[in-house]
Amino acid sequence: MIQKLLKRARKIVIKIGSNTLAKEDGTINYAFICDFAAQCAFLIESGKQIVLVSSGAQVAGLSTIDCWTRKTDIHYRQALCAVGQVELMDNWRTAFANFGLHIGQLLLTKDDFSDEHRTLNMRNTLFTLVDEGVVPIINENDSVSFEEIKIGDNDNLSALTAVLWNADLLILFSDIDGVYDKNPKRFPDAQRIPVVENPAELRRNISVEGTSDFGTGGIATKIDAAEKAGAYGIDMILADGSAPRALASLADGSGQGTVFIGEETWRRTHSGQ
Fold first, then answer.
1. What is the pLDDT of residue 233?
2. I want to staple 101 with a disulfide (CB 3.0 to 4.6 A). Which of 71, 96, 223, 225 is the partner?
3. What is the pTM of this model?
4. Cβ neighbours of residue 128 closer than 8 Å, sequence gap 6 or more
């Protein structure tokens, strides 16, 4: 099903989590960024349109100013994001430039999605960038966000982006290759769930505690994202971003993950199409 969804989709939103972008020592993984840009470029060449939602501003900030590693004050965290966002985008810019592709940056907050004028401007900017062959890269504006205007995680930001852009498919790359019936890091007998038709029922039946090491999201935020996207008929795939050629393997059918099917795919599946 994953290969079919990618083949059918033209407009794809891809979220890259902080754990995927970070090396074991917590610094930014430039080799991964270059390899992932190459995979995106291949899909774009084949006729796909791609919008990236990229975490990693804080990770990139720590890579640049490592003497701030132990500072936990919110002002330092936001300052790190201000520094790191520049580094992060420069890495993406350099990587995509290898394939003759330009990138454009959008930094957003919750308020941007609740104000109709900002939403219209965001939508128009997205469509213009993609139509002109530019790869939009979106992140939450962590340097200015506070609790009341903070989306809080890029899983939900990517779902909101997918809805805004009328995407066909949302892919969340995380540090896990799908949803399991229980935490696979604690329980060796955990079983991956290949297809989810009802995220609300899934939430009732599995444990969703915990967050990732570098990121702010856990399984709960991914289920939230699936619900948001699915309500608008957008399919979602949760897969392991650290797997070799993660995006290409999903496209050729060799990769694995959990598929959250939207309303339209549900109708096709149950009608035998």
1. 93
2. 96
3. 0.88
4. none
